[in-house]
Design a protein that fits this description.
The structure holds 2 protein chains of 2 kinds. Chain A is an alpha+beta fold. In chain A, α14 (about 320-330) packs across α17 (about 385-395) and α15 (about 365-370) runs parallel beside α21 (about 490-505). Chain A is elongated and about 120 Å long. Chain A starts with a strand and ends with a helix. By secondary structure, chain B is mainly alpha-helical. In chain B, about 75% of the residues lie in helices and about 5% in strands. Chain B has helices spanning about 1-10, 15-35, 45-60, 65-90, 110-125, 135-155, 160-175, 180-200, 200-215, 220-245, 245-255, 270-280, 290-295, 305-340, 345-365, 385-405; strands spanning about 90-95, 95-105, 105-110. Chain B has a 3-stranded antiparallel β-sheet with strand order 1-2-3. Chain B is globular, with a radius of gyration of 22 Å. The chains are: A alpha+beta, B mainly alpha.
């Protein structure tokens, strides 16, 4: 056929030849470029490079509720290496200068091997100025080494806030993998506390500057006149709910103790102070965290890294009596005139003792005197499941939903719980202890503070939180965050009777009469949680002023003894400072050690 | 052994595996080009998704009955034209050309889709029993079928895709059996027009060559004279079009003629692409270690300049392996063309071959500085969903033609 061929050559052959010709031409050209002229192209490539410099934005700072700075940024030097330009034979010299062990630099470079060799790797943060001076003198012999000034966290207000603020830390490989759109190796991110929970508000937006550099990495100008440069945008400044004054006071008073304090503004759920003791110094995290410091932190038997305020749970002891009272009053099981006779104890299978013989007591008197008999009996009148339901309404047995996240739910046993353990015929005598807040029931300090705040504000509040909102960058106006409203639905009458009882605890003949302050009406309740492993835990919950409460506090001091002796004085000092604006008149007065051991009223509780 | 034989007979492993390796090389290069990019770092996972979708489509098309293609030729062509018109009104402008249509969450380029429509229609027309490719009328009809979409694409304006069509139309007419003289008549105006862009002396030289060729063909004087006039006209037309082009397009043509004339402007991409490849050396700088690539010297490197990533990070060895895979793929498709069971399928497969070939030629030619910067992707390697999907559809057709080559119905 005539069409099979083209000028007597088969068409298929012509197309094959075309394809082979293109292949040969390209192959030849590649050989010429990549093999013959390689050196000259390589020089051109190295001689003219664009370097993108990341502009790290300033992290947002923290203000307290009165706009005093509590966490700020401060400058520090960071030494870096750009692997592509760096000569590994400098390792020993550098390691000596920055006082690191041998192999330190290789380890860091190895961890970053998956990233471009043209991205600088941070070798050490917070290096001494002497090192920088040495570098400046010798920089020409140190190719691929440079330093930058970076911002680190500083804590100017003299408060620790360890568990609340949290710290920033170099991003972990896992998180980097998850959020590699934004972060680069070596970036610092919030690791816990507010720094972590509000990372997206705090971190700001990175900027980039592009410059042209020659083969010696000397800058030879901006790339395309800087048209692609983007400035960094500072992160949002947060306004916290805490009050520096009482936070500082609370931290000082918890020095050398184990335990936690949480103070809440009842109407808003704003946390005024939150302390977990022992705490640790966040400044240790701002620069280089030494290995010894971390070892100490994590091996300490007192577990300073553990946020006791939200993560530790204990039986609430007598502070839980108000819960039963609320449930019984709201259910109509009792009214303000109902009395229960206390003859020094209660028998249900075995004898449960009361620390006194209170006679016929009504509900307010039962709180004032912390009468156990009243509550041993009352829980049987309420019924276990209803008691558990009211516990839930008041925020127990579930997470409070605090904005920093790290918290536990605790445990409120109900009949299903005991059926699982003991079967259908579980011993009903267990309930008696629950009535006075002992046994399986366990709650966190945060939950106790929330509970106290709900009592103070008649069952209405907001989810407890540490951050009010952030400041708008231009107008400096506060943009508030929204938090969930809480309404327990329990009757006002029940709350006012319970508050009256708590008022009598301080201002009547109760267990905390020592904490009276002139010119301030305080309501509260002491408690002691039995501890099978050692001395009992001291508890106190309370609020002030009695009318129109502004602050509700829960204090727990572990392994010290009675609540009235060890926990109430701390709350007293905080009420005084927060509401009367005075420094404690005499520092000794607030120390529990100086209280007279003969105050028998304090021992008659439980 | 028996089963193996049967499978080999039904499924062409060489084209499938060369395609698969090209796809893999492409994914590696896309990863490298975008991993440190601020906004494009999820291109890799997107391309993986598209690759999976495209492979599914490949197997669907592979298993269709072979007369599907002939039946769908005219409708697909008309739908292609429809979308090419719609995009002119509703299209989204991407890098200066109104070439994208957004349908729901997806965007696609009608010009990619129209490639398939055009070769189907051309194959359909050329394989009619009555078509005589050396008759003036049928050549005009064939050119009209081919150039109608080109005209619409030039209105977007997308210069790169238009070049592909020109190459494809020529190769299909050639495969149909055009005579030497017929091809000369079709080609010479283009040759003269191209020469005219280089300047007056090139233009006159080209006219001289055309004149000598006309004397050599010994056709009648009037016919030869009209063809010569057509050539002169093409030269002036090219000059006119050049001046009518937008300044940035003029610069591109200028920078091809002399890349160093404006090293930070239009010639920038071309130079940086060559520096990237040249500095790769024999073994390359290693995965993720190419400074030209990682510092994002070359804009949009994951699409049109993807071959630079391969050349820089995997060197001469990587670049030659990629070339060889294309060589195997193209020659294998050519073999299937020649064994197709009828002329329509043979023409269709040569059309597909030419699409791959012209893309390959222009894309690699551009990155190694042999051709001006014309933005078209490298088949199976470059980032881009619609391009990958349509390339895979066409490979599915080839696989289908291979599968049904012995069925005579």
């Amino acid at each position: 056929m005539k069409t099979e061929s083209f000028a007597s050559v088969p068409r298929k052959t012509i197309i094959s030849l075309l394809i082979i010709a293109a292949f040969s031409l390209f192959g030849f050209r590649l050989f010429q470029m990549q093999v013959v002229q390689h050196t000259s192209f390589d020089q051109r490539s190295a001689g003219n490079s664009i370097k993108g410099i990341e502009q790290t934005p300033l992290r947002g700072v923290f203000y307290d509720r009165n706009l005093e700075v509590v966490v700020k940024n401060q400058p520090a030097y960071t030494l870096r290496i750009t692997p592509a330009d760096y000569d590994r034979s400098l390792n020993r010299l550098l390691e000596t200068v920055i006082d690191a062990d041998s192999g330190y630099i290789d380890r860091i470079l190895y961890n970053n091997r998956l990233y471009s060799r043209f991205i600088p790797v941070r070798i050490k943060r917070g290096v001494d100025f002497k090192v920088i001076a040495w570098y400046e003198e010798n920089s020409e012999h140190l190719p691929g080494v440079d330093y930058i000034v970076e911002m680190q966290r500083g804590y100017p207000a003299g408060i620790m806030g360890s568990h609340m603020f949290g710290y920033t830390k170099e991003i972990s490989p896992d998180q980097l993998e998850r959020e590699k759109d934004y972060y680069r190796p070596g970036d610092y991110v919030g690791h816990n506390g507010i720094e972590k929970a509000y990372e997206n508000y705090l971190r700001g937006t990175k900027g980039y500057i592009y410059i042209l550099v020659d083969s010696r990495r000397r800058e030879i100008g901006s790339y395309r006149g800087g048209e692609q440069d983007t400035p960094s945008i500072k992160g949002h400044d947060l306004v916290l709910t805490i009050d520096v004054e009482i936070q500082r006071l609370a931290e000082q008073m918890m020095k050398g103790k184990r335990g936690a304090i949480v103070a809440i503004e009842p109407a808003t759920g704003e946390i005024l102070a939150m302390v977990s003791a022992p705490d640790y110094d966040l400044n240790q995290f701002s620069y280089v965290t030494t290995k010894e410091f971390l070892d100490d932190l994590y091996s300490d038997p007192d577990k300073p890294s553990f946020n006791r305020a939200t993560m530790s749970v204990k039986p609430p002891g007598s502070t839980y009596k108000m819960l039963s009272a609320l449930a019984a009053l709201d259910l109509g099981v009792i009214n303000e005139n109902s009395t229960i006779f206390c003859g020094g104890g209660f028998t249900y299978g075995r004898f449960f003792k009361c620390l006194g013989s209170h006679g016929a007591v009504n509900v307010t008197r039962s709180i004032e005197k912390s009468c156990n008999t009243f509550y041993y009996r009352l829980i049987y009148k309420i019924g276990l499941d209803k008691w558990a339901k009211y516990s839930n309404k008041m925020g127990f047995g579930k997470k409070a939903g605090i904005d920093i996240g790290e918290e536990v739910a605790g445990l409120i046993p109900d009949s299903k719980y005991y059926e699982r353990i003991y079967g259908h015929n579980w011993p009903r005598s267990i309930m008696a202890s629950l009535g006075i807040g002992q046994g399986e029931v366990s709650v966190s300090p945060l939950q106790l503070a929330q509970y106290c705040a709900l009592i103070a504000n008649s069952g209405k509040s907001y989810t407890p939180h540490l951050v009010k909102g952030y400041l708008d960058d231009y107008t400096k106006e506060l943009i508030p965050f929204k938090f969930k409203e809480i309404n327990t639905g329990i009757s006002e009458k029940a709350f006012s009777l319970v508050r009256e009882g708590m008022h009598l605890v301080v201002h009547g003949s109760g267990t905390a009469t020592r904490m009276r302050i002139e010119g301030l009406e305080i309501a509260g309740k002491t408690g002691t949680a039995q501890n099978p492993h050692g001395k009992d835990h001291a508890l106190f919950v309370g609020f002030a002023p009695y009318e129109n409460p502004k602050i509700a506090i829960a204090v727990i001091v572990e392994n010290v003894g009675f609540g009235g002796t060890h926990a109430a004085p701390i709350a007293r000092a905080m009420f005084e400072t927060y509401l009367l604006g005075d420094k404690p008149r005499k520092h000794e007065e607030v120390k529990p050690q100086t209280l007279s051991p003969m105050v028998l009223g304090a021992l008659s509780e439980n | 052994m028996r089963i193996d034989y049967k499978l080999n007979d039904k499924f062409d492993f060489p084209i499938f595996f060369t395609m698969f390796f090209l796809l893999a090389i492409g994914l590696i290069a896309i990863y490298s080009a975008t991993v440190n990019h601020l906004t494009m770092s999820d291109n890799f996972s997107r391309q993986v998704t598209w690759a999976i979708i495209s492979l599914v489509v490949f197997f669907i098309i592979y298993s269709l009955p072979s007369n599907t293609f002939r039946l769908s030729a005219v409708p697909v062509y008309l739908v292609s034209l429809f979308f090419l018109i719609v995009v002119l009104f509703l299209g989204k402008t991407v890098s200066g050309a109104k070439s994208w249509l957004d349908i729901g969450p997806f965007g696609f380029q009608p010009s990619e889709f129209a490639k398939l429509g055009t070769i189907l229609a051309l194959a359909f027309f050329l394989s009619r029993r009555t078509t005589d490719i050396d008759s003036f009328k049928d050549i005009i009809i064939a050119l009209a079928i081919g150039f109608l979409p080109v005209g619409l694409i030039l209105l977007e304006p997308d210069l790169g895709s238009s070049f592909v069509y020109v190459g494809v139309i020529l190769l299909m007419i050639f495969w149909k059996g055009i005579s030497v003289f017929g091809l000369f008549v079709v080609l010479s105006p283009g040759f003269v027009a191209l020469a005219a862009l280089f300047g007056l002396y090139y233009f006159l030289g080209a006219l001289l060559i055309v004149g000598v060729a006309l004397v050599f063909f010994k056709r009648d004087l009037f016919f030869s004279a009209s063809i010569y006039a057509l050539n002169i006209g093409a030269g002036f037309f090219a000059d006119y079009v050049y001046h009518a082009l937008s300044p940035h397009q003029q610069k591109r043509i200028q920078s091809f003629i002399d890349p160093d004339s404006d090293p930070l402007g239009a010639g920038y991409n071309s130079i940086q692409a060559m520096v990237a490849i040249g500095s790769g050396g024999i073994a390359g700088k290693g995965f993720l270690n190419g400074n030209q690539t990682q510092l994002q010297y070359i804009p949009e490197q994951w699409t049109d300049f993807i071959y630079c990533v391969i050349g820089e990070e995997f060197g001469f060895i990587g670049a030659i392996i990629t070339l060889t895979l294309f060589l195997i793929l193209l020659l294998r498709i050519l073999k299937i063309c020649a064994s197709a069971k009828d002329e329509f399928l043979s023409l269709l497969s040569i059309g597909i071959l030419s699409i791959y070939f012209v893309h390959f030629l222009i894309n690699i030619g551009m990155t190694i500085g042999l051709l001006p910067v014309i933005g078209i992707p490298l088949p199976f390697v470059s980032y881009g969903g619609s391009s990958l999907l349509i390339n895979m559809c066409m490979l599915g057709i080839i696989a289908n033609i291979y599968r049904t080559r012995k069925q005579f119905t």
